[in-house]
Design a protein that fits this description.
- The chain has six helices and six strands; from the N terminus they run E-H-E-H-E-H-E-H-E-H-E-H.
- The chain has about 140 residues and is an alpha/beta fold.
- Helix 1 links the parallel strand 1 and strand 2.
- The longest helix is centred in the N-terminal third of the chain and has 12 residues.
- About 35% of the residues are buried.
Length: about 140
Amino acid sequence: MQRVLVVEDRAVIRKGTQSILGAWPEWQVSGEAANGEEAVLLTNDLKPDIVLMDISMPGMGGLQATRAIRKVCPDAKVLMLTSLDSLECVETALHAGARGYLLKSHTEGELMCALNVVAGNGIYASPGLDPDRLNRMVLQLGLIV
């Protein structure tokens, strides 16, 4: 069973994501956080397999929290969940230590696909983002797929 920490400042999105995950027996929500500071503390305490992280949050944002999480719990994999669809944001997220980048506009099925790819040590990027540029980015960063 894969344990997921859901990090999102909007309660309705946080609860909706937990509801989606609850329908899949192979996934367990280990906790929730409303900001980056809480995410770092909870990751250190709960040791989730995956942190599903919003990028834009008040206080410590998702990118800064991802960097901190990679230091305190290097085995935790971060999947960014965001509405920002620029490749520059994807590159920044990968530099910060994220293993995936999912747009909030995608479906429940795409969320589960992204989680499975990241759980399997792959790199995930939302469909519609330039795949050739993403591949070059992954290679330049020396990420293992």
